[in-house]
Amino acid sequence: MSAIESFPGEAVPDNGLLRFLTCGSVDDGKSTLIGRLLFDSKTILADTLHAIARTSEKRGLEVVDLSLLTDGLQAEREQGITIDVAYRYFTTGTRKYIIADAPGHEQYTRNMVTAASTADLAIILIDARKGVLTQTRRHSYLTHLLGIPHVVVAVNKMDLVDYSRETFDRICRDYRDFSATLGIADVHFLPMSALRGDMIVDRGERLGWHDGPTLFDLLENAPAVHGAHAEKFRFPVQYVCRPQESANPELHDFRGFMGRVESGEITVGDAVTVLPSGRETRVKDIQILGQSLPRAVAEQSVTLLLADEIDISRGDMIVKTGELPSVTKQIDAMLCWLSESPLDPRRKYLLRHTTRDSKAMLAGIDYRLDINSLERQAAEKLAMNDIARVGFKLAQPIFADPYAESRGTGAFIVIDESTNGTVGAGMII
User: Fold this and answer.
1) What percent of the chain is modeled with pLDDT above 70?
2) Which of 17, 39, 229, 253 is most buried, taking the most CB atoms under 10 A from its CB?
3) DSSP symbol at 96
4) Cα distance between residue 83 and residue 104, in whole Å
5) Beta partners for 353?
């Protein structure tokens, strides 16, 4: 029986949604790994498989090039590298997955940051022939910076080093020495061959000396989204629903606050506080499409009805009483600059935090991080792909948590109002 089959009539568990990221140095085999995972888990449509088989044959390859499943851009296929972030969605029957295949080149750091911002697990690939490289350290730092809680270090291309256990152990020691300086806690090491399929879904016959789980087993059993630790309830208000014209008299006094639960959970009857007013009340009802629910949890989009009539608008936040975030007009953050135009310290930008917008001015740049050496350097401006610790002064207060505690309320984006383009992404310290 394969890893994804079950007996007829057997109850199939639902392990929830897992978003994971693959990253590493150029040509470490990220795209091939994803293709192998999709192929061996039998989640590729027949016509898709036939199409990449034909393309592989035209290139004179003896085996199907599974990396074509993710390297979709023409420029990527011509260069044999991944440039943009390629997303793939699949399900195994017990869990749903969203895969982000991040680029390996340094000049695409912003793409890596985008892919990592929503991931719950990162697979960092290392070429068994090359060991821990500068790009390995860079991607590991970004993984840690963006708060990805679980890391799998996949030592790939073991078939090219004769499946040597000594080589694998040496790479594991080197990575542990480096990761200890960053404080990365949850790391699992895995030898594999994405090309041959060893230790991806099936164990294979050439890595018998490794008694740990396969990559598929690790993914299936990784903690569910928002399940690693208790979170505080955060509900940024997106829209105030007040039906003005309805034949139903019960809707005349309806006042619902619509939004997405960023973290935590809420139950009917819980005491809540509305920010920025500080008014306190209780949750009278929780609805989805007019149907009442006893509670709402993280990532659900719901409508909250409150026991008291309070003036609330878009950009306000509803939290549990006694679990207040910081209400502040000044923040310190790690900022990744995404725009080709450098950060101008004299300009005003728009800072978007959850559903709230505020004019923002740069208060200062503490340092710029050399992403390769991880050294801190003095800087007066930031160019594309730069990462720095900065301060912002805001015209309007935001309701923020440290990014390490809540990715939903600890993150923000910076918008250039003249172009309406997103020019920066930050994590509040």
Assistant:
1) 83
2) 39
3) E
4) 8
5) 356
The Cα–Cα gap between 366 and 388 comes to: 7
Q: What is the mean pLDDT of residues 339-360?
A: 96
- Given a cut of 80, whether residue 91 has pLDDT beyond it is yes
Distance CA 245, CA 88 (A): 43
* Mean pLDDT of all residues in 79-100: 73
pLDDT band at 245 (very low <50, low <70, confident <90, very high): low
- 9: tokens are 């009539």
Strand partners for 292:
287
User: In 265-399, which ranges are continuous DSSP H helix?
Assistant: none
Q: What is the mean pLDDT of residues 20-46?
A: 80
Average pLDDT value for residue range 376-404? 95
**How far apart are alpha carbons 231 and 379 in whole angstroms?**
36
Can 234-320 and 326-428 be said to share one CATH topology? yes
3-state helix, strand, coil split of the chain in percent (to 5) is 20, 35, 45
d(CA 123, CA 128): 15
Rg (the chain; Cα; Å): 24
Contact 303/288 with Cβ under 8 angstroms? yes
Residue whose tokens read 């006893």: 294
> What whole-number percentage of the chain has pLDDT above 90?
60
| Whole-number Cα distances in Å, 261 to 168, 291, 313 | 42, 17, 16
Token readout for 260 is: 């997405």
What is the CATH T-level fold of the domain 234-320, as seen in this structure? Elongation Factor Tu (Ef-tu); domain 3 (2.40.30)
Q: 269 near 293, Cβ under 8 Å?
A: no
- The reported pLDDT for the residue numbered 223 is 85
The CATH class, in words, for 326-428 is mainly beta
